[in-house]
Design a protein that fits this description.
By secondary structure, the chain is an all-alpha fold. It has 13 helices and no strands. The longest helix is centred in the C-terminal third of the chain and has 39 residues, at 205-243. The model is unreliable at 1-9 and 12-16 (pLDDT under 50).
Length: 296
Amino acid sequence: MSAVLESVAAPLVAAATGKPRRSQRLANQGVRIGGRPRSRAFLLAVLPPVLGLALLVLVWQIISVKNSTFPSPAVTWAEAVKLFSDPFYSRGPNDQGIGWNIIASLKRVAIGFGLAAAVGIPLGFMVGRFRFLAGMFNPIVSLLKPVSPLAWLPIGLLVFKAAHPAAIWAIFICSIWPMIINTAAGVQRVPQDYLNVARVLNLSEWKVFTKILLPSVLPHMLTGVRLAIGTAWLVIVAAEMLTGGVGIGFWVWDEWNNLNVPHIIIAIVVIGVVGLVLEQALVALAKSFTYEEAKA
């Protein structure tokens, strides 16, 4: 009973004396009371992904035991050590290290993705800004967006007469849609009051773009760019399997023809890691801006 009275009376006494409570004083000094210890928070952050990877390796090991043609994690690890001991060897145009193949694929992605950004982002601004252009392009985007990347490859081979520009074309046409759609959606969500004020102040279209549209649309635009880079990396693997030459997709197909399954598994892991790095780089870029939506 006395403890209850003390707990009720303490805030009243503190308010009467004007002295902050002990918990408030400690909080002002940066001392957390009742929070999770740092070691526990670190454990909760690290333990789930480690357990997930351990479960994946366990399933992999079980499959390799049941199927003798499927390499075990230990065999694949040994092959990976050999492979990455010299990733940049070159024994002719069709026998190059995995490092050269990754670089060749990244170059194609950079060109195709760069062209898509150069065309898609300005087009998205115009589609979102002008209703007439939205009426023109929205049906086209809705029609062409679901088309498979492999369906665009023959068009590229027919037009460009070569495998390298055809692969870049496939990346371009498949990664342009997320940038158009997200940029246009960001422009359309700009509050109309902002544009009304710009109209009252008789601002030029350039001022409207630089002072109102671009800061407001940037989080949506970066989301589209992030989605587009993932699509581009997916497309290049499929395109290179069909076009040949040097590239991670061709390398996977070449290893399949040689029935080298450990190298195929290594390539899958490498493709996943490179895609993850590309996406995280763009996430870090988005977080560098002080926009709440970009940090979400």
